[in-house]
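Postdoc handover notes: sequence design on the structure in folder B. Input tokens:
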């Protein structure tokens, strides 16, 4: 698998050179998502949130979606922030990430993690729809 970078006149972000950056982002992601998810959805919610946010985090990191210094925008956030935002405000961030991922990426790598993100999040939407139907019909959840 060959990885190439985009040749663009637009200012692109570069992968952080400090090896601790990835480690700090992973720890921050795990801490924020697991604490929030555990208290709102129990152990199942925490696991589901870690998987969904983790897939988004990994896809953003591999695709080169890094925060660009000096630019202020809702879309100019780190991979860790994409993962956390996907868990906290899923209904807003999911379509934004799907629509803007190809514009934001700076590395042309494989799309395996992106496809995993789409599939996992589609499963989450179906899961919530089934719960909503079960609650409305009076079925036991």
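Designed sequence:
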């Amino acid at each position: 698998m060959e990885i190439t970078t985009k040749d663009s006149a637009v200012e692109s972000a570069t992968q952080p050179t400090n090896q601790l950056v990835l480690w700090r982002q992973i720890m921050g992601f795990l801490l924020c998502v697991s604490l929030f998810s555990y208290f709102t959805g129990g152990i199942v919610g925490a696991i589901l949130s870690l998987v969904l946010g983790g897939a988004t985090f990994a896809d953003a990191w591999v695709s080169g979606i890094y925060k660009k210094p000096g630019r202020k925008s809702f879309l100019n956030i780190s991979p860790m922030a994409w993962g956390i935002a996907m868990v906290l405000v899923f209904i807003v961030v999911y379509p934004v990430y799907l629509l803007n991922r190809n514009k934001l990426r700076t590395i042309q790598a494989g799309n395996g993690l992106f496809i995993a993100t789409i599939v996992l999040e589609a499963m989450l939407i179906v899961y919530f729809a089934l719960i909503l139907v079960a609650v409305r019909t009076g079925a036991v959840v």
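Context for whoever picks this up: Confidence is low (pLDDT under 50) at residues 1-12. Don't rerun without checking with the PI first.
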